[in-house]
Amino acid sequence: MLGVCRGRRKFLAASLTLLCIPAITWLYLFAGSFEDGKPVSLSPLEAQPHSPRYTASSQRERESLEVRVREVEEENRALRRQLSLAQGRSPSHRRGNHSKTYSMEEGTGDSENLRAGIVAGNSSECGQQPVVEKCETIHVAIVCAGYNASRDVVTLVKSVLFHRRNPLHFHLIADSIAEQILATLFQTWMVPAVRVDFYNADELKSEVSWIPNKHYSGIYGLMKLVLTKTLPANLERVIVLDTDITFATDIAELWAVFHKFKGQQVLGLVENQSDWYLGNLWKNHRPWPALGRGYNTGVILLLLDKLRKMKWEQMWRLTAERELMGMLSTSLADQDIFNAVIKQNPFLVYQLPCFWNVQLSDHTRSEQCYRDVSDLKVIHWNSPKKLRVKNKHVEFFRNLYLTFLEYDGNLLRRELFGCPSEADVNSENLQKQLSELDEDDLCYEFRRERFTVHRTHLYFLHYEYEPASDNTDVTLVAQLSMDRLQMLEAICKHWEGPVSLALYLSDAEAQQFLRYAQGSEVLMGRHNVAYHIVYKEGQFYPVNLLRNVAMKHVGTPYMFLSDIDFLPMYGLYEYLRKSVIQLDLANTKKAMIVPAFETLRYRLSFPKSKAELLSMLDMGTLFTFRYHVWTKGHAPTNFAKWRTATTPYQVEWEADFEPYVVVRRDCPEYDRRFVGFGWNKVAHIMELDAQEYEFIVLPNAYMIHMPHAPSFDITKFRSNKQYRICLKTLKEEFQQDMSRRYGFAALKYLTAENNS
C-alpha cells in the first residue's frame, strides 16, 4: 500500500508541474518585458534598429529571453513524455511487459494471510521490478512417462519456445519409452540455446513406490517429491511443470518471481481452484489436509538449495507416513503430500497469482481469477476430460492449445540474438557439410536434401509388442504420406504381424492422422504397429530417409521391405516365418523375394491362393508389376518360372532390378541421396548384390499393388527435365561410390548400366 501511495503522489506531482511551469514561464517573460517600470515591446515594428529605443543592451536581453523560452518549452515537452509514460504504466493500461525487465504482478508471501486463506491479488501497482538477465538460463523440470505423455510434452515445449527469449535447460524425468522418443525428437529438432538432460524415472520408482496412489498418473505422479535428490546438486532453482500445461507468455516472467521469495519461502504455488480440499464435493468426501483450498502442483517454483538445507526429503516422508496411516492412499498423487506439508509449514509457500496456473477442470473457480482471457499466463488442462472440459472460455483455450499443437516446430529453430549457444557437434558437422556444397549447382537442392535433418517423433501412438521367442519374427516396413492413409486399415487386415511405418507429415497433418487413427477400430485394435512421424521440410519427399527411420526401429530379427500401396497376400506373415527357417536366413546372406503384381481396379476381389491369382492373371484382372511401363524393374523375378515353381529358386541381379525383399535386420540402409521418384529401391538392391546377398524367389508368396493417383514426385519426374538430369547425375555418382567401396566387383554395375 505504501508503494501505491508513493506512486500516486509522484503522478500528481508530475501533473501539477506540467500545469504550473507554463504559467510561471509567462509571468517571468511578462515581468522581464518591463524596463524602468515601463513595458518593453517585443514586436518587430517597435524593435527596429532605427528606433530610438533600440539599444545593444535591449537586443541582448531579447536574445536571452528567446533562449530561455526555448529551454522552458523543451522542459515542458520532457515532462509531457514522462507523464505519458507514467500513464502507460498505470494498472488500467498494463497488458504485460516484454522487455528485458519483466513486470510481475504480485503474489503474497505473508504466512498470516495464508492461514486465513486470503487469495492473493493479481496485481501490484508499483514497486521494484525483478530482472531476468538477457542470457540467463531458465531451468524447467518435467516428469514424463509413456507414449501419450510424450506427445503432450511436445505441445508444452512448443508453447514455451514460441514465447521464450532466454536459453532453456529442460530436465526430463522420463521412463525408457519417453526418453527414447524425446531424445530423438530434441536431437533432430536442433533448437539453438536449448539443452536437454534425462533422468531415469524407473530408477526413482523405489523412492515413491511405497505410497499407494489412486490418481491416473500412477507412480510417476509422485516423482516431483524427489526432485531435490534427482536434479544436480548445483542446481539452485527450477520451474516444475505438468505435461498438460500450455504457456501464453514468456516463461522468463515466471522465472523472475523467484526474486520475490522471502525468508523461508521455498515453494511457489497457485491456489487450487476447485473445492476438492474443502471436502464438500460429495457425501463422506475426505481429502488430505490442506491450507484453505490447498495448492495445485501443476506449476511449481522450487528453491532447491534451500529445500535441501531444510531436509525436504525427510520432511515430506514423515508427513506422508503420518497421513497415510489414516488416508491409506493419495487421491491426487504428489499434490496431496505437498499440501499436507504446507498445512504444517505454511511459511514454506509463496502464493503465485492464479493466472500462472489457470486450472481447466470441471467445477473450478478459474473464471474468477482473470478479467479477460488476454490476462492469462499459463493454462492447465488438469481434467481427465482435457479439451472437453466445461468453461465459458473453453473455445479460446482450446484454440490456443490447438495453435501450438499444429504449429510448425521447424519455425522454432530460431537463434537467440546476443546469446551464444553451446557448441553442438551435430550442428557444426551439418553446417560444414552444407558449406561444402556449391549453391550454383543446378542439382544443389537434391544434394542438400541428403544432409537435411528432419525433426522425428518416434512411436507417435502406443506401441506394445514382444517378438516371438523362436527368432523367426518378421516386421513389415513401409513409408507413407497423408494421401496414403487409407491403405493402413487394409494392410492391417492382410498382415497380422508387427509393422514399422514412417509417416511424412506436417505438424497439422500429424494431428489429423492422430484423429484418424483414434477413430479407427482396426488401427486402435492393433498395438504392434509403430508409427514414426518424420516432419516435413524441404521440397522433396525423402523416401529413403523414411525407409531408414522405419528400418532402424524394427524390433524383430527380420524385415519385409514393402511399400504402403501393396497389399500382402493373406497369411504371408506366417509363410515368411516358415521360409526364414527353411532358407536358414539367420546364418546366410539371403534376400527372399516376394513377387509383385498389380491391378488397375479400385475394387478387387483379393485372390486367396496362388491358383486364384494365376487365374486372374490369365483373365487380365491382374498383371505383373509395372509390366506396361517398367518391365526391367521386376523381370529378373522370372514370373514364367514362378507360375509352376513349388520350391524357392535363385535369380541373378540385373540392371534396374527392384524387387520387394525379406532380409535380416542388419542389412544396409537405403542411400539418402535419392529423393522423390527414381532409383531409390534400385540403388538398395544393387548394394545388397555388392555385399553378396543371394536373391531367392518364394514360390507361394505374392503381393498386389493397389491403384492410386500419381504422386507429386512422379509428376515432377515426368514433367521436369532438370529433375531427370539431376537423377542421372546422382546415379552416376552412386555408381562411382560403389566402385570405390567394393572395388573390381562393382565394375559390373557400370557395364550393366551402359548396356541397358
TrEMBL record:
The subcellular location is: Golgi apparatus membrane
- Pfam families listed in its UniProt record: Glyco_transf_49 (PF13896), Glyco_transf_8 (PF01501)
Protein name (record): Xylosyl- and glucuronyltransferase LARGE1
Q: Which organism is it from?
A: Odocoileus virginianus (White-tailed deer)
Keyword tRNA-binding recorded: no
> Which gene holds the coding sequence for this protein?
LARGE1
Task: Specify the protein's topology with respect to the membrane.
Answer: Single-pass type II membrane protein
Name the InterPro entries for this protein.
Glyco_trans_8, Nucleotide-diphossugar_trans, Xyl/GlcA_transferase
The question of whether Secreted is a record keyword is answered with: no
